[in-house]
Amino acid sequence: MKVFGLPRRGARGTRGTDRTAPTRLAARDLLAEAVSGLLQRPARSALTALGTVLGVGAFVAVLGLTATASSQIDARFDALSATEVTVEDVGGGRPGATGLSFPADADRRIGQLNGVRAAGVYWPVDLADDTVRAAPVGPRRTGEQVAVVAASAGAVAAAAPHFAQGRGFDQWHDSTARQVAVIGSGTAARLGITTLDTQPAVFIGGRPFAVIGIVDEVQRKADLLLSVTVPRGTAAKLWGEPGRERARMLIVTRLGAARQVAAEAPLALDATHPEHFRPLPPPDPRALRGGVSSDLDQLFLLLAGICLVIGTAGIANTTLVAVLERVGEIGLRRALGARRRHITAQFLAESASLGLLGGLVGTSLGVLTVLGVAVGRNWTPVIDPVTVAAAPAIGLATGLLAGAYPAWRATRIQPAEALRR
């Protein structure tokens, strides 16, 4: 125990008498007292620091995982959203008088633009009898209500489908109005079509269409998995041009070319009436990423803040209990010359040590969490060094805040009353 206020002989006062030296508490002694107080109750100290460990660990892990996920979000936006352009057929000032503004060779015209990888026209077919059957005869209830989509060969290619069986139709099927169809795996299961070896057909409004491909996955236009897709030329011949819903064009570009292609597409489709088309360029991936990152930050930082509040309450409670348990010790220190600021510094040092220890352990666990998730997902981990440096300081500040009230309570203990207990 540090002894305070021992008289120093030989000190000369104003009247030649001895004077008591002012008491001091060196930083080394203060640190030793704080460490000794923690080691006297190691289990309690560990459990007390647990809240800070969780809070700081969540803080580091959240910011690290958010930054890491943001880089992956960027990559996906670049691969999909940033390379997709949609062109709507608005029909100019008289949409009712123009059934289809896209020319027959729209795929070829857009395909000649620099940066275009695939492009095609599609629209939902408006049928009076939209029941699709796998047999030519039978009651209506044996059919399925399935969406029928008219699409050019380029539109099917732009969707980047994966065929479980068969293949997609091509320009020859489109130009010659062949009655062929590509169906999604979900539609095939509903109609009982499991293989193409038997050359199955579907009947749309009583008309047979040979199934030449079954799609089980697409990168774009996911609704094709639940639809029956027929060639554009076939749909126009059998059912006419688009009705209530107008046609659209899906364009897939190379990275960085989407906005330029969107600006050029209306003129490439119809130089005399570009107003018939409205291009929809992809959103800015930076703004979209910023919105996603902001939402993640706010949500998980709130959780980290709650953990820190719990940690603060735990440290404050434990420090206050320690003050009540050590009333005799505090009284003895005061009797030996310790001042109130020394008592305050002692308990603040103990609570700050708990917070700093929890901050260091929490920072380590947070970094390990980010690295583990990144390795498991085959991502590149992204951790801001400022976050790693600031996290232990947050733990230290938490400990200081938690120890303020118990330290103040300790200074209010009167030495005489404490020694009588």
From TrEMBL:
Q: Where are the transmembrane segments?
A: 46-67, 299-324, 345-374, 386-408
Query: Where is it located?
Result: Cell membrane
Q: Which domain of life is it from?
A: Bacteria
InterPro entries annotated for this entry?
ABC3_permease_C, MacB_PCD, Macrolide_Exporter_MacB
Query: Which keywords appear in this protein's UniProt record, sorted alphabetically?
Result: Cell membrane, Membrane, Transmembrane, Transmembrane helix
In this chain, the stretch annotated as Disordered covers: 1-20
Topology term for the membrane: Multi-pass membrane protein
Signal sequence region: none
Record bears the keyword Methyltransferase: no
Q: Where is the MacB-like periplasmic core domain?
A: 45-243
Q: Domain ABC3 transporter permease C-terminal, which positions?
A: 302-415
Q: What family is this?
A: Belongs to the ABC-4 integral membrane protein family.
The protein, known as:
ABC transporter permease
